[in-house]
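request received
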Amino acid sequence: MPELPEMEAWRRQLDEPVRAFPIAKAGPAHVATLKTFDPPLSTLDGRRLAGARRRAKRLLFPTEDGELVLLVHLMTAGRLKYLRAGEKGPKAPAFQLVFEGGARLVLTEAGSKKRAGVWLLAPEAAEEQLAHLGPEALRLGADALATICAQESRRLHSLLRDQRVVAGIGRAWANEILHHAQLSPFAVSRDLVLEEVQRLATAIDVELARGLELRERGANDARTYRVHDRLHEPCYVCGTPIARVDYEEHTVYYCPDCQTGGRVLKDRRLSRLLR
Ligand SMILES: [Zn+2]
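response:
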């Protein structure tokens, strides 16, 4: 799933083109993709967007008149693309905006499952929709993170991915951040000493900024991730093979030397079956 660096790179890319021309026609939209019906999509026709904004992993496109917000959540497989006039695009996008002059903003989704969503909302309703989200991960800072860690007794990998606690990090960047911070993914937040909290806060900023810079330059996953999805490859710090542990429905990657004091973590799924 695209996370904060990926979404922010797309936001920067889309910000200018989406406000170049008024919308000629909003839609059509796949019935599973469009999550709202009032106001109808056609309310957008003739209006101009004010640009692209981002909150956590969502993109927001407010109208220039301040009356409407188009909210997009790409989930795992959704992709948003701006096509210039005449540029070829997908035959049946899950959603599209056609601008005057012929440029288009299209949402596609790989696979048959339609999980990405588009909401057309009044600004207050959009705010409500986002109210459950925690503070943005980038530049969260050590003080705010210390408060969070003291309040929550949670394993770090799971805590970082909880959008209600801190917004924008998913499993890939949680792997990168915890490795950078040299903390175990299964360390408990409340047990961290101040120095570890500071290390984690720094790692969040450094890794998300690194990701954003790479994504803005168009780097793919293989060039971006150094720990995530790198099973058995040498750790970029110490050379120890990266290990993996399956935990609930997802997978955690870590370096046993840098992060867990040489301990190889048990596969949680397997050990639960054997219990
Ligand atoms: Zn290492």
